[in-house]
Every structure is written in structure tokens, then in C-alpha cells.
Amino acid sequence: MKKILFILLLAIGTISYAQVHDPVKWSTSVKKISDKEVELIAVATIQKDWHLYSQEIPEGGPIPTLFTFEGDSRYLKKGNTTEPEGHVVDDPIFEMKIKYFDTKAVFTQKIRLKTAEKFTVKGAVEYMVCTGENCLPPKEVELVFNVN
Question: 7-41, pLDDT tens digit by residue?
């Protein structure tokens, strides 16, 4: 109950602040691995004092980072999106170990190409960011990867 109340109060208290403050900027690129495989790269640049949560957060914790990619017959997703090492801390609010990133985080997703033509992979990332004092509500950002 304590956790739910905390999240609710933070969300309500920061809604107007969240509308004007965006502490994470996302950029994308594509790295060719071979003629049949490329890596989609999403980089989160995180403002000082903020942190972005990992994709793997224990149940009952904050909202984890989640990547989704639109299906397309021109490629096949290989495995899951990978993330950097990050920091693991004992979070006193959620009473659990939580992994997060500060400053910068690079996420990668391998895909197998089914065509030699140029195309765009569309996706999205849903994430939550916090400081030691407050959190912003979860946000979703569209991502575009140009495969050449």
C-alpha cells in the first residue's frame, strides 16, 4: 500500500511539471553487422540527477523500460533488446534492488534482414525516470530506424 500511495502522490504532484520537463532525449542509429544482419541502436541521453530504469525490474517496483517494434515482413527480430550494465541499488521506497542508468544508456536490438532494399523500422520505448526526490509518470516515445 505504501508503494502504491507513493507512486500515486508522485504522479499527481508532477503531472504539470512532467508536461514541460523532459529529462531524457532519445536518438537512433543502425549498425551493419553483415549483409543479412543489422543492429538497431537507441541511445538515451539522461539529464544530470535523473535516472532511467532498466528493462528488468522486479514485480512491485517502478515501471521498467519497454521496447516494442512494429512487425514487418522485411526483417525478423533476433532475441531481446540488450542494455548496458547500469547501477544496481537498494531502493528504500520500493524496498528492493533496482537497476537504473544515469547520463547515458545504449540499447541494442539485432534484426535479420529479409530484403536488400532500404526500409524503416518503427518502434517505441516506454520508460519512467526519477531523481532521488521525485518521479515523472511513464512516457512513451516513438523510435525510427532507417535501414539502408
Answer: 544 555 544 444 558 999 999 999 999 999 999 99
Q: Which of 51, 86, 66, 84 is nearest to 139 (CA)?
A: 66
Spatial distance between the Cα atoms of 39 and 41, rounded to a whole number of angstroms:
6
- Quote the CA–CA distance of 34 and 51 in Å, as a whole number: 34
For 23-31, the CB contacts below 8 A with 24+ separation are 23/47, 23/50, 23/129, 23/136, 24/50, 24/52, 24/127, 24/129, 24/139, 26/125, 26/141, 26/143, 28/143, 28/144, 28/145, 29/145, 30/145, 30/146, 30/147, 30/148
Grid look-up 543479412 returns 36
Average confidence (pLDDT) over 1-8: 49
Q: Is the pTM of this model over 0.70?
A: yes
Residue listed under C-alpha cell 529479409 = 114
**Residue 13: count of CB within 10 angstroms of its CB:** 12
Whether 51 and 102 have beta carbons less than 8 Å apart is answered as yes
CA distance 31 to 25: 20
